[in-house]
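Running low. Any example?
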Amino acid sequence: MKRTLAERELSSEGPRHRQRPRRNRRSVTVNLAESPLAWLYARGHLAERPFLAGEKLRADFEQAGLAPSVTMRWDPVRLKGGPGAGASPAERQLAAKRRFDGAMAAAGAGLCDVLWRVVCACESLPHAERALDWPARSGKLVLRLALDRVADFYRLPGA
């Protein structure tokens, strides 16, 4: 994973999003390229199975092209007999969309909101909790439940 390090002011609520910390304040170096899911996994807040389920869900989200695009698509032209000769790009995109929709349906209506925010949109847990009007520190438990259901959908071992 690529690392993009930045210095942030450290407050009681976590790193602030200011560009530079003020003088005589505690600061912390953060990796801006790290996803919230990877952050939780690296610090032992998530087990491997839910982490892999979240990564698989994000891969399907990205492969399905569900994120907003800002430029023209520059997909390469498919060559007969080349890599990925089994399915066309459109077929692979549709299959990823079906898997994504199935995983979100398996998570359930109340849990897919936090899944989309943290796994797909890469919002931090505190931001997702505030946006969903949840109590502080409740998002981690709800995210674990949602990722466990997604891991069951993807049939990941270790249940």
Notes: The chain has six helices and three strands. Residues 35-69+78-153 form one domain. The chain has two domains: 1-34, 35-69+78-153. The radius of gyration is 18 Å.
